[in-house]
Amino acid sequence: MANHPILLISPPLTKPCEPPAGLAKLAWALRAQGVDCRVYDAGIDGILGMLDRPPPVDDTWSRRALANRTANVEALRSMDLYRNRDRYKRAVMDTNRVLHMAGRSCDAVISLSNFGTTRLSPVRSQDLIRAAQAFDSNPFYEIFAEKLSRYFTQGEPAIVGMSINFMSQALCAFAMIGFIRRHLPRATIVCGGGLVTSWMNIPQRGNPFGGLVDEMVSGPGEKRLIALCTGKKNTQPFVTGYDFSADEMDRYLSPVRVLPYTTSRGCYWKKCAFCPETAEDAPYLTDSPQTIGDDLMRLREQTAAGVIHFLDNALAPRMLNHLIDHPPGVPWYGFARVTRHLADPDFVGGLKASGCAMLKLGVESGDQDVLDAMAKGIDIGMVSKALDTIHRAGIATYVYLLFGTPAEDEAGARKTLDFTLAHASAIDFLNLAIFNLPAYGDEAGGLDTVDFYAGDLSLYREFIHPRGWSRNRVRRFLSKTFKKPTAIRAILNNDPPFFTSNHAPFFRM
Known about the structure:
Blueprint: E1 6-10, H1 21-32, E2 37-41, H2 42-51, H3 60-67, H4 69-76, H5 85-104, E3 108-110, E4 115-117, H6 125-133, H7 141-154, E5 159-163, H8 167-183, E6 188-192, H9 194-200, E7 215-216, H10 222-230, E8 258-261, E9 264-265, H11 276-279, E10 285-286, H12 289-303, E11 307-310, H13 317-325, E12 332-335, H14 345-354, E13 356-364, H15 368-373, H16 380-393, E14 396-403, H17 410-422, E15 429-434, E16 437-438, E17 449-451, E18 460-463, H18 471-482, H19 486-494
Parallel strand pairs: 1-2, 1-5, 5-6, 6-7, 8-11, 11-12, 12-13, 13-14, 14-15
Antiparallel strand pairs: 3-4, 9-10, 16-18, 17-18
Helix pairs in contact: 1-10, 3-5, 4-5, 6-8, 7-8, 13-14, 14-16
């Protein structure tokens, strides 16, 4: 059977700081089967294209941002900018201002990290269909239409794969699908990615886009795409293997080439309450650390990457041990669970020596009862020791806290405040989030719930908090109490606007 050519697309809008790893993994798998596979990151194309198309401006800030937009983009690609936080923040905010004004001129909300419109919702399938029907009204239309037309002229793909991982991509993805369907009516359009996987796990939810999207793929897409392109039906999901275009990496808004990489699929813990990995029962897949290490070295040499961003839900201890014994040769960062390993000075010192610039830690709460109710498997005393050990080793910490879970009340939130203040000197960055209840997890059945977002694709439900700790009360606590202490304000001020954890390591390199 002849191989069918395929075009893989990552639609706007994602943070424009690194190439999409999912497309690189699919490309590797498909090309290994001899498939003619092309990759189009419309996300970075859209951001850069929008910055090149001056919007109308009517105020001093916008005029300054517009005049300096090229210089700001180039500065974001230079390490010098990251040595001055004030200059960095001004460059980011001015760049974002241009995007904001461009969106405002066409009834859209565009930032460096998000996209939306006042008319259409990404959680309503009918609105996504409308976005496809009115594709030429999408703010990125002229940009993606020009590039897609060029791809089609070079050779029409028989299959188009659309990777939709975030809600911020959904409306633009369907605008692109509408354009493709209009110009390539015989092409097979397949949608996959993290957001599509979540949609497909909604009970009794099939493909609501019949006639527009041919298939919706849940989970890893290699097997299905290989089958569509080659007819082979027995291939297995890949853990290692990526195919990045090194030249394209210089387009992203980061001071060095960033190599995004995952050493596993799923989560090795997979016990936390309210977690999509648990609710969707995604299997945990990995490879031997040696195989992964060899693949990393191959990619680092091919791409001349300056930093590795590990995308795992949590790097497994045995992989961390491998990195200690076989350093990748460049700085790296990623998520890790707080285990006894991170309280061991020798182990953490080894991580630092291996190039670890930052660890992202899902601490969630400073109240042990809340952690136990969430099945986090974390001991708050161990967290305390780990933060101190990591700080002493010179590794930055990006700590994630979650407020408003069913087991928390204001007293529990104040314990988190006290814990954070007690360890403020060992916390470099903070992410504060308000809990969203997954609509279809087992835990939702035990709570009184109401609509969160009105839409058939909504993934969350509002709930009546059993302890009266409502979202409004949580918001007031965060703004009027948690964020007030000087030590916490200083940490929050460190956070890179819009880019957050994706740019945070560069301030420590």
